[in-house]
Write a structure and sequence with these properties.
CATH class of chain A: Alpha Beta
CATH topology of the largest domain in chain B: Rossmann fold
Order of helices and strands of chain B: HHHEHEHEHHEHEHEH
CATH superfamily of chain A: Thiamin diphosphate (ThDP)-binding fold, Pyr/PP domains
Low-confidence stretches of chain B: 1-6
Structural class of chain A: alpha/beta
Number of domains of chain A: 1
Largest sheet of chain A: 6 strands, parallel
Distance between the termini of chain A: 37 Å
Number of domains of chain B: 2
Strand order of the largest sheet of chain A: 2-1-3-4-8-7
Largest interface: A-B, 36 and 31 residues
Helix content of chain B: 40-55%
Number of helices of chain A: 8
Number of strands of chain A: 8
CATH topology of chain A: Rossmann fold
Distance between the termini of chain B: 14 Å
CATH architecture of chain A: 3-Layer(aba) Sandwich
Structural class of chain B: alpha/beta
Low-confidence stretches of chain A: none
Number of strands of chain B: 6
CATH superfamily of the largest domain in chain B: Thiamin diphosphate (ThDP)-binding fold, Pyr/PP domains
Oligomer: heterodimer
Shape of chain B: globular
Shape of chain A: globular
Largest sheet of chain B: 6 strands, parallel
Strand content of chain A: 15-25%
């Protein structure tokens, strides 16, 4: 399964959600489908997309927060899973694109390619709804369930280690940041 | 009280972090030690700090426990108007505050200076890069009067690192000044969209 298949599948659903992505292929692919003001691309600070998601979810319980994470990023901040499990914001969906590698920086393998299971780590951290999807159909089922249940949900999408042809995004970091903040303010 | 003061605080810090379940075989002695340490942290001044944070409009407090912060953390925990987020590492707090800020909520970070040192990458690559204000209250361990040898290296480097990062900071030493200093730090963080640090001093937090 390719990451852009998943992003295309869920793109219509996240029109009015607060969306945070990690840097690299995830950001570039979501941006290329079509940027929206409610998308924030965290172009550094690896590991903290889900922590930002928690801050957003606590501050805006009226909105749904969707975080697009990656295996490399999440492995840099595994403590986030226990923090999320503990506070369990019911308005947050944490999607992890697990391509089992650090694709944007040379494709080196991560431990999920060999021994580590992020869904297992999430479950044992205390996240009640944590599943792995290996096909687009499995992902679609998990995604729909996550949106309907209105409880913290964690979905690992096992995707191919294939990135976009170009990582360029015609959006400055601060433009994205202030646009996103403005959108949140208007949706108050 | 018997035993070495350093041991007292090591016991207290372990129990604060891990809960009473970590009190071991020699429980009676350990409980004595914990009580001694907690009594040595100023409740009055912790309350002054906490009240000033509240008046500054802080709604979310991210914290990782350490002895000097114990009353502050308990106050946040018991206050229904404040959301206390117990983090596993200070880096998380930078992300949480960034999310809260973009969503229009004021937040503060309670951390030890070693936690500040642990959070430097996100301070640089999230807070500076994206112009995110942070109100960081940092317990200034390892400075004058410190008995715990393990705190001393971090104590030596805290201010040089704050200066190297060009983070505006002040020392909180006199209780009478604390409300004004916290209010002004919050104002500067928000107007400059940068991190601001307040160093919680031994003089303010600890009753020797």
């Amino acid at each position: 399964m390719r990451r852009d298949e998943i992003l295309n599948l869920l793109y219509p659903d996240i029109e009015d959600d607060i969306v945070v992505t990690i840097m690299g292929a995830v950001a570039a692919e979501l941006y290329s489908i079509g940027h929206r003001r409610n998308f924030f691309y965290l172009q550094h600070a690896m590991g903290l997309a889900s922590s930002m998601g928690l801050g957003l979810a606590l501050a805006r319980p009226d909105k749904r927060v969707v975080v697009f994470d990656g295996d490399g990023s999440l492995l840099m901040n595994l403590g986030t899973l226990s923090t999320l499990a503990w506070y369990a914001p019911n308005n947050m969906i944490h999607v992890v694109f697990d391509n089992q590698s650090l694709l944007s920086v040379g494709g080196f393998p991560t431990a999920t390619s060999a021994v580590s299971d992020l869904t297992g780590i999430a479950q044992k951290s205390g996240i009640k709804h944590a599943v792995t999807a290996r096909t687009v159909d499995e992902f679609a089922t998990a995604w729909r369930a996550a949106r309907e249940r209105k409880e913290l949900s964690f979905v690992v999408a096992k995707v191919d280690a294939i990135g976009p042809k170009a990582f360029h995004m015609d959006l400055s970091l601060l433009e994205n940041r202030f646009q996103f903040q403005r959108w949140l303010c208007e949706k108050e | 009280m018997s035993g070495h003061p350093a041991r007292h605080c090591a016991v207290a810090e372990r129990v604060i972090a891990g809960g009473l379940a970590t009190v071991n075989a020699n429980a009676a002695e350990e409980l004595d030690i914990i009580q001694f340490c907690l009594m040595s942290v100023s409740i009055e001044n912790s309350k002054i700090v906490y009240d000033a944070l509240k008046r500054s409009g802080v709604k979310i407090i991210s914290a990782l426990p350490e002895t000097w912060l114990v009353h502050l953390i308990n106050m946040a925990d018991e206050d229904p108007e404040t959301t206390l987020v117990r983090i596993t590492r200070e880096e998380e707090a930078i992300g949480i505050s960034a999310g809260a800020h973009l969503a229009g909520l004021r937040s503060a970070l309670l951390m030890q200076n070693h936690g500040f040192l642990a959070a430097i990458n996100p301070i640089v690559s999230l807070s500076f890069l994206y112009k995110i204000p942070l109100l960081m209250l940092i317990s200034y361990r390892g400075h004058m009067g410190e008995r715990d040898p393990w705190q001393t290296q971090g104590g030596r480097l805290t201010e040089p690192v704050l200066k190297a990062l060009d983070i505006p900071y002040e020392h909180l030493t006199n209780a009478a000044d604390v409300p004004r200093q916290i209010a002004q730090a919050q104002t500067l963080a928000e107007s400059s969209l940068t991190p601001v640090a307040l160093l919680l001093s031994r003089q303010l937090m600890w009753k020797d």
